[in-house]
Design goal:
The structure holds two protein chains of two kinds. By secondary structure, chain A is mainly alpha-helical. Chain A has 13 helices and no strands. Chain B is an alpha/beta fold. Chain B is globular, with a radius of gyration of 22 Å. Classes of the chains: A mainly alpha, B alpha/beta. The structure holds adenosine-5'-triphosphate (ATP), iron/sulfur cluster and magnesium ion. Magnesium ion binds at residues 47-48, 180-181 of chain B.
Chain lengths: 306, 337
C-alpha cells in the first residue's frame, strides 16, 4: 500500500512540471504588458523598460521560466502588482478559509449523497426513491449562485439568523458550503443509486442470498463497498468543479477566500497572483486525483495487488 | 421418511408486459437422502429457474412460483415466509453456481466470505468460525488453507474459487446441495477434480445433491438418478444405468448420441438438429416435435403425458396408447365437422 502511494507521488513530479510550464506560457501569451501596468499610464518608455529589466521580463521566455521555477521551489511566488505584497502572503491569508469551505462542502455532499443514493436504491420506485431523486435533480439543476442568493434572502435578510458574508465564525461557513456542495451531493446521490442497483444484480449478491443473508447484510456487507468504486471516481471529478464553483460562491457570499482573490487579481491583471492561484488550483486537482486513486485502491483489492 | 426433497407440479414464470410467461411447466421429481440426482437439458430449458425456485431466490428477478410445492424434510418451502426461508438457505439447503469467477465478492477476503455463513447459522465465535472455515477449505482440497483465508478471489484460479464456493456451501453441513452447472465454466481436468471433490464431500456428509448440468458426461460420472428436461417439462427420468442402457425419449437418445466418445472423430459428433423453441413460440403438441426424427401426426396435435413405466418415466407418444388417442381426436373432429 505505502509502496503504491510513494510510487504514485513520484509519478506526479513530471506532471506538475508540465502543468507549471503550460500555466507560465499561457499567462505570458495574454495581451497586456505587466511592466506598463506597474509603471502606470504616465510613465516614459525608459521607465517601463527599467521595470521590465528589473523583473527579468527582457530575458528569453525559457530562461524566465527557469527563474520562475527556481523561485517557486524556494517558496518565492513574486510580488503582487496591485498591492506590492508578496504573493505567498496574499495566498497564505486566503487559503485556510477556502480549504475549510471546500472540505466542509465535499464532506457533507459525500455523506448525504451516499445516504440518499443508498436509500433510493434500496427502496427503488417507492416514495423514498422518488423523494431522493427529486432532491438530486434539484441539486443538479439549480445553479449555486442562485441557491446562494435564495439562502441569503431567507436566512440573513428575512430571518436574520446567519451572516450574509465573511468568514468570521462557523456560522458564516454554513450557507456557502451548502450552496457549494448541493450540486455535488446531487451528482453523488444519482451515481450511488445506479451503482448500487447495478451491484445488486451481480452474481455474488445472489451468492449472499443463497447463504441466507438478509437485506441489510447484503447491502451493507456486500454491495456498498463494490458500488462505491465508481462513485469515488465521480466524486473526484466533481471536486474539480467544486474548485471552480468556489469562485462563484465566494463572490456571492463575499467570502474572503482564494476564489475572490482570483477574481480581483484577474480584473487588475495582477499576473503573479493569477499565475500562483492557477498553479495552486491545478495542484489541488492533481492531489485530489491522487487521493481518489488511493481510496480506489483501498476499495478495490485488484488494484492494490498489481 | 426417505424423501429429502420432493418437488410437486412446480410451475414458475416470469412477468412480461403481456402477463405471466411460464418457463417451468409443472415438473415433479424427488431427491432421496444421500442421493445425487441430475437434471439435464439444453440451455434455456429451465434448469436454473427450477433450482432458484427451490431456493426461493427469484425475488431479484421478475420470476415467481406460480403453482406447486417444494417439500423439503416435510416442510413446504413455497409456503414459508422470507424470514423462515433465510434460516434454510446456506444451512440445511445450500447452493453453488455456474460462474466461480463472479460468484464470490471481489472486494472481500475469502475468510470473511466463509466465516459469514458459519457465524450466521452455527452460533460460533469469530475464532471458532475461523478454525471451522480453515477445516472446510482443507476438506475441499485447498492447499495452504490458512493463507487462502487472507486472499481475495482474484488471487485464486477458477477451480480454486469453485472449491471455495463448495466449502462455503457445505460449511453448515447441509442435507441438500443444489449445484447449478458447477463445472461448466471450468476446463476439463479441473472439472474432473471438482466432481470428485463433490463426490467426496457428499459421501462424508451423507448429503443429497441436485446436480444441474447440460453435460451427460457429468451425469454418468456422479449421479444416481437423472431427470431430463426439455422446454420446461420433464421428458424422461430414470436411474443413470437405465437411462444410458435403454434411453426411451428421442430427445434423450439425441443427447446421448451427442456426447463425444473416445476414438470418435470430432467431425462425426452428432448434434440434435434445430434449436430449443422459445417460450413465446411453443409448438402445440409435443414440444420436441419440430426436431424429432420419429415425429408422428399426433405429436403435432397433442402433447403426450409423462407416463410411468417401472421407475422409468417418459413423455413420448412412441410409448403410449396412441391409437386410442388418435381415435378419440378423430371422433372429436368428425363430430365437429
Ligand atoms: N431473469 C429472467 N427474466 C426473464 N426470463 C428469464 C430470466 N431468467 C431466465 N429466464 C427465462 O427462463 C427460461 C429458462 O432459463 P434457465 O436459466 O432456467 O435455463 P437453463 O436451463 O438454466 O439454461 P442454461 O443451461 O443456459 O443455464 C429461459 O427461456 C429464459 O429466457
Ligand atoms: S412425442 Fe412424437 S415428436 Fe415428441 S418425442 Fe415422441 S415421437 Fe418425437
Ligand atoms: Mg442455467
Amino acid at each position: 500500500m505505502w509502496q503504491y502511494i510513494v510510487k504514485r507521488v513520484i509519478g506526479l513530479i513530471p506532471l506538475i512540471l508540465v502543468v507549471s510550464f503550460v500555466i507560465f506560457m499561457f499567462i505570458h501569451l495574454i495581451p497586456g504588458d505587466p511592466a506598463r501596468l506597474i509603471a502606470g499610464k504616465e510613465a516614459t518608455i525608459e521607465e517601463v523598460q527599467e521595470i521590465r529589466v528589473s523583473l527579468g521580463l527582457d530575458k528569453p521566455i525559457i530562461e524566465q521560466y527557469f527563474v520562475y521555477l527556481k523561485d517557486l521551489l524556494t517558496g518565492d511566488l513574486g510580488y503582487s502588482i496591485q498591492s506590492g505584497a508578496p504573493v505567498s502572503e496574499l495566498i497564505g491569508e486566503r487559503i485556510m478559509p477556502t480549504l475549510g469551505l471546500t472540505f466542509i462542502s465535499i464532506i457533507w455532499a459525500l455523506v448525504v449523497g451516499i445516504l440518499i443514493g443508498v436509500v433510493s436504491a434500496v427502496f427503488r420506485n417507492k416514495w423514498p426513491d422518488h423523494l431522493g431523486m427529486v432532491v438530486a435533480v434539484s441539486g443538479i439543476s439549480l445553479p449555486n449562485f442562485w441557491v446562494g442568493l435564495v439562502l441569503i434572502q431567507l436566512f440573513s435578510v428575512q430571518l436574520g439568523w446567519l451572516p450574509t458574508g465573511g468568514a468570521d465564525d462557523w456560522k458564516s461557513y454554513l450557507m456557502p458550503s451548502f450552496a457549494l456542495g448541493a450540486g455535488i451531493m446531487a451528482m453523488i446521490a444519482r451515481f450511488m443509486r445506479s451503482s448500487l442497483m447495478e451491484t445488486m444484480k451481480q452474481d455474488y449478491i445472489r451468492t449472499g442470498r443463497a447463504k441466507g443473508l438478509g437485506g441489510n447484510a447484503i447491502v451493507f456487507g456486500h454491495a456498498l463497498k463494490n458500488s462505491l468504486i465508481p462513485v469515488v471516481t465521480i466524486a473526484g471529478l466533481q471536486f474539480g468543479f467544486l474548485l471552480g464553483g468556489s469562485v462563484v460562491v465566494e463572490t456571492v457570499f463575499s467570502f474572503p477566500g482564494l476564489g475572490r482573490l482570483l477574481i480581483d487579481s484577474i480584473q487588475f491583471r495582477d499576473y503573479p497572483v493569477v499565475q500562483a492561484e492557477i498553479l495552486l488550483f491545478s495542484l489541488q486537482f492533481i492531489l485530489v486525483n491522487l487521493l481518489v486513486d488511493i481510496v480506489y485502491s483501498f476499495l478495490n483489492p485488484k488494484i492494490r495487488y498489481q | 421418511m426417505n424423501q429429502l426433497l420432493q418437488v410437486k407440479n412446480l410451475k414458475t414464470g416470469f412477468r412480461k408486459e403481456n402477463g405471466m410467461q411460464n418457463v417451468v411447466h409443472g415438473i415433479s421429481f424427488h431427491v432421496n437422502k444421500g442421493e445425487i440426482v441430475g437434471i439435464v437439458g439444453e440451455s434455456g430449458c429451465g434448469k436454473s429457474v427450477t433450482s432458484l425456485s427451490i431456493m426461493r431466490l427469484l425475488h431479484d428477478t421478475p420470476g415467481e412460483i406460480v403453482d406447486g410445492s417444494v417439500m423439503f424434510k416435510g416442510e413446504d418451502l413455497t409456503a414459508l415466509s422470507e424470514r423462515q426461508m433465510k434460516k434454510y438457505r446456506g444451512n440445511e439447503l445450500s447452493m453453488i453456481f455456474q460462474e466461480p469467477m463472479t460468484s464470490l465478492n471481489p472486494v472481500l477476503k475469502i475468510g470473511r466470505q466463509l466465516r459469514e455463513t458459519i457465524q450466521l447459522h452455527l452460533n460460533m465465535s469469530k475464532k471458532e468460525a475461523h478454525q471451522h472455515a480453515i477445516s472446510m477449505l482443507k476438506s475441499v482440497g485447498i492447499p495452504r488453507a490458512e493463507d487462502v483465508m487472507n486472499d481475495y478471489p482474484h488471487q485464486l484460479s477458477g477451480g480454486m474459487r469453485q472449491r471455495v464456493m463448495i466449502a462455503i456451501a457445505i460449511s453448515c453441513n447441509p442435507s441438500l446441495l443444489i449445484a447449478d452447472e458447477p463445472t461448466t465454466a471450468l476446463d476439463v481436468t479441473i472439472q474432473a477434480q471438482i466432481l470428485s471433490v463433490l463426490k467426496d464431500v457428499q459421501k462424508q456428509n451423507e448429503m443429497g445433491i441436485l446436480m444441474i448440468t447440460h453435460d451427460l458426461g457429468v451425469v454418468a460420472e456422479v449421479c444416481d438418478r437423472v431427470v431430463v428436461m426439455y422446454a420446461g417439462r420433464i421428458v424422461e427420468s430414470a436411474t443413470v444405468e437405465e437411462l444410458f442402457a435403454a434411453p426411451k425419449h428421442p430427445y434423450t437418445k439425441g443427447l446421448i448420441a451427442s456426447v463425444p466418445k473416445i476414438g470418435q472423430g470430432i467431425n462425426r459428433l452428432y448434434s440434435i438438429p434445430g434449436t430449443v423453441p422459445s417460450p413465446s413460440n411453443m409448438p402445440t403438441g409435443c414440444k420436441f416435435a419440430p426436431r424429432c426424427s420419429q415425429v408422428m401426426e399426433i405429436c403435432k396435435i397433442k402433447e403426450p403425458e409423462l407416463i410411468q413405466m417401472k421407475e422409468h418415466d417418459c413423455r413420448c407418444w412412441l410409448y403410449q396408447e396412441k391409437e386410442q388417442e388418435v381415435e378419440h381426436i378423430e371422433k372429436g373432429s368428425s363430430a365437429r365437422g
